[in-house]
Amino acid sequence: MTSSLDFDVQEPLTSNATPLTSSTLTIRIIKSFPYRNVKSIVLSNYDLKEKTGHDLFNDVLKKINNEGAYRPYRNVNYDTMKIYTHAHGSKTVNLVINFTHDNPEDNWVLDTKDPNGKKLCQYDIENETEISLFNLEDYLEFKANPVEKWL
Q1: What pLDDT is recorded for position 13?
Q2: Which is higher by pLDDT, 136 or 22?
Q3: Domain carrying residue 45
Q4: Which CATH number covers residue 25?
Q5: Are 33 and 142 in contact (CB under 8 A)?
């Protein structure tokens, strides 16, 4: 009997096949929620077993401050990182930020302050996870009144 599936059911997902010590993460840098100013950084060969939320935060800020492509994103006081979507998971309908999972017990907001905090894999972050970087005050203001503006 033939199947109409165009993929191999036995084939593992890339999030499961790639080792946690060599993962790819997409960081969504959010400059403005109402104007939907978002630029991505792709981190390859990132070690999710050894790196903490603090490490990831500092690595991303270093890229923003040292690479010319991110110059327009340097004037925001970034202070929060939150999982936008897990690999192969459903995406949110909002194109800028995931409004759900704000509670600490949800395990989606990363601790960016403690250098000895949880490892990224302890947040259930795996290969191809997308994480948002933003200013918390701006996020809370936008969440209270999610009106998008157009130029």
Answers
A1: 53
A2: 136
A3: 18-144
A4: 3.10.20.90
A5: yes
With the C-alpha atoms ordered 11, 14, 20, 21, is the resulting torsion angle positive or negative?
positive
Token pair recorded at residue 107: 């395990």
Question: For 65-94, what is the mean pLDDT?
Answer: 87
**Residue 60 in tokens:** 């991303």
Helices then strands, each counted (H, E), the chain? 3, 5
Give the separation between CA 29 and CA 53, rounded to whole angstroms: 15
35 in a structural domain: yes
Residue 64 CA to residue 149 CA, distance in Å, equals: 25
pLDDT computed for residue 68 by the predictor: 95
Question: Based on the structure, what is the number of domains in the chain?
Answer: 1
Long-range pairs for 57-62: beta carbons < 8 A, 24 or more residues apart:
57/81, 57/110, 57/112, 57/133, 60/27, 60/29, 60/133
